[in-house]
Amino acid sequence: xxxxxxxxxxxxxxxxxxxxNDSLKKRGLKVWLTKEPTDDLVIPETLSADRTFYSGVEVxxxxxxxxxxxxxxIRKRLKSGSIVISDRFTLxxxxxxxxxxxxxxxxxxxAVEWMTSxxxxxxxxxxxxxxxxxxxxxxMRRIADSGRKNTGFEEVSYLERVRNAYLQIDFPxxxxxxxxxxxxxxxxxxxxxxxxxxxP
Length: 200
Known about the structure:
By secondary structure, this protein is α/β, with parallel strands linked by helices. The protein has helices at 13-26, 45-48, 53-79, 90-105, 108-118, 136-146, 156-168, 183-198, and strands spanning 2-6, 31-35, 83-87, 128-133, 174-178. Strands 2-3-1-4-5 form a 5-stranded parallel β-sheet, sandwiched between helices.
């Protein structure tokens, strides 16, 4: 089983994915926790903070190349019998870069069609994508409270566009969960969803 956690920066997906991973392992299940971008990819801050069509396309291609390699690693883990949990996967690119390039390509729907075509070599989709949905202003407060370094993607107006894209995109296996609760409550809801899929 392959589960991807998605959401805007500050949605809590990194914390929740780790807690889900720990909980499943305590149950004796074989789990591999991973993330995107992988450690092999470094996006310059000047590029990630640039909201132009050209930078959006460039970042999308960089993420896609990284994802092709990542997908091969995920397949190996799945074949070995592991449950794979990924902090971000394809839907992140569709929401983040899609919201930047959509206008030039005739709307978000057209942008997603193009990105889906370019992503064909990935040829892997999560069985379940859990979207942790939070208000961008709430997310920014959470980021500020954590003291985390700004990566260039955190900006309220941009995160609003990204959140709207996340909600609008019809992605297979996507389930939205309110991410504004405590890590424990959100993790519990996610574990309940995953548990239902794991039952024979």
